[in-house]
Amino acid sequence: MKLINAELRGLEVIADKTIKMEILMEGALLETIRPGQFVYIQIGSSSEHMLRRPISIADVDSKKGLLTLVFKELGEGTRKLSNMREGEPLNMLIPCGNGYKIDQIEMTNALLIGGGIGVPPLYYLAKELVKKGIGVTTVIGFHNEKDVFFEEEFKRLGNCYVTTNDGSYGQRGFVTDIIKSEQPVFDYYFACGPNPMLKAIESTLKDKKGFLSLEERMGCGVGACYACVVPTQDEKSSKKICQDGPVFHTGEVKI
């Protein structure tokens, strides 16, 4: 993990209050990033916003020296990020946390499941899996049609199913409804999104192996403050999401 100053290349609105940010930075550092890791980014000055914001990494292009982040405007801090201009500096800790350990497992097919702002980190994961010759099926869920993004990007990598809570786009319902109806073939699944979604996925796929990436507010971002702890499944100990996670094996922590 390094504390760096990088340069904003550009911003693009890709869905309702959803921003794609491209950042210029050193290619050698980008090569160290694993899918599922995140950046811890400073908003303005430390006097304005004492706590940094964790934002998942959506894509990496080490040849072009480009890092892609996707975030949703949820408050004053992310609103300030979305109003930045090309060329402005960004102060970040990168890469943070533990990502998906795809080099340590053997598989032929993978199922990726994302909900809302949990979708972005799965895109870089999907690209890396495809590079390894692994078949990828993606299921992404949103509240409504205005929230949908990255569908075409995932379709270029494999099968992609979209669901919305209100049925305004794709299939009406939740990501678990798609899993039950389509019954995709896979060896491991990788999920990222809100805790209720992750709990439902664990229950639906209780006989399958997988990994869950947790979304959580953080304090220090480096494991010192214990602001983002989650109990282990047996409740005998705890894990720090910022340091031990955000990615965990299914059954490792109690959501």
UniProtKB/TrEMBL annotation:
<dbReference type="Pfam" id="PF10418">
    <property type="entry name" value="DHODB_Fe-S_bind"/>
</dbReference>
<feature type="binding site">
    <location>
        <position position="242"/>
    </location>
    <ligand>
        <name>[2Fe-2S] cluster</name>
    </ligand>
</feature>
<dbReference type="InterPro" id="IPR001433">
    <property type="entry name" value="OxRdtase_FAD/NAD-bd"/>
</dbReference>
<feature type="domain" description="FAD-binding FR-type">
    <location>
        <begin position="1"/>
        <end position="102"/>
    </location>
</feature>
<comment type="function">
    <text>Responsible for channeling the electrons from the oxidation of dihydroorotate from the FMN redox center in the PyrD type B subunit to the ultimate electron acceptor NAD(+).</text>
</comment>
<dbReference type="InterPro" id="IPR023455">
    <property type="entry name" value="Dihydroorotate_DHASE_ETsu"/>
</dbReference>
<feature type="binding site">
    <location>
        <position position="225"/>
    </location>
    <ligand>
        <name>[2Fe-2S] cluster</name>
    </ligand>
</feature>
<dbReference type="InterPro" id="IPR017927">
    <property type="entry name" value="FAD-bd_FR_type"/>
</dbReference>
<keyword id="KW-0665">Pyrimidine biosynthesis</keyword>
<keyword id="KW-0249">Electron transport</keyword>
<keyword id="KW-0285">Flavoprotein</keyword>
<comment type="pathway">
    <text>Pyrimidine metabolism; UMP biosynthesis via de novo pathway; orotate from (S)-dihydroorotate (NAD(+) route): step 1/1.</text>
</comment>
<feature type="binding site">
    <location>
        <position position="220"/>
    </location>
    <ligand>
        <name>[2Fe-2S] cluster</name>
    </ligand>
</feature>
<dbReference type="InterPro" id="IPR012165">
    <property type="entry name" value="Cyt_c3_hydrogenase_gsu"/>
</dbReference>
<dbReference type="InterPro" id="IPR050353">
    <property type="entry name" value="PyrK_electron_transfer"/>
</dbReference>
<keyword id="KW-0411">Iron-sulfur</keyword>
<keyword id="KW-0408">Iron</keyword>
<keyword id="KW-0479">Metal-binding</keyword>
<feature type="binding site">
    <location>
        <position position="228"/>
    </location>
    <ligand>
        <name>[2Fe-2S] cluster</name>
    </ligand>
</feature>
<comment type="similarity">
    <text>Belongs to the PyrK family.</text>
</comment>
<comment type="subunit">
    <text>Heterotetramer of 2 PyrK and 2 PyrD type B subunits.</text>
</comment>
<dbReference type="InterPro" id="IPR037117">
    <property type="entry name" value="Dihydroorotate_DH_ele_sf"/>
</dbReference>
<feature type="binding site">
    <location>
        <begin position="53"/>
        <end position="56"/>
    </location>
    <ligand>
        <name>FAD</name>
    </ligand>
</feature>
<dbReference type="InterPro" id="IPR017938">
    <property type="entry name" value="Riboflavin_synthase-like_b-brl"/>
</dbReference>
<protein>
    <recommendedName>
        <fullName>Dihydroorotate dehydrogenase B (NAD(+)), electron transfer subunit</fullName>
    </recommendedName>
</protein>
<feature type="binding site">
    <location>
        <begin position="77"/>
        <end position="78"/>
    </location>
    <ligand>
        <name>FAD</name>
    </ligand>
</feature>
<keyword id="KW-0813">Transport</keyword>
<dbReference type="InterPro" id="IPR019480">
    <property type="entry name" value="Dihydroorotate_DH_Fe-S-bd"/>
</dbReference>
<keyword id="KW-0274">FAD</keyword>
<keyword id="KW-0001">2Fe-2S</keyword>
<dbReference type="Pfam" id="PF00175">
    <property type="entry name" value="NAD_binding_1"/>
</dbReference>
<dbReference type="InterPro" id="IPR039261">
    <property type="entry name" value="FNR_nucleotide-bd"/>
</dbReference>
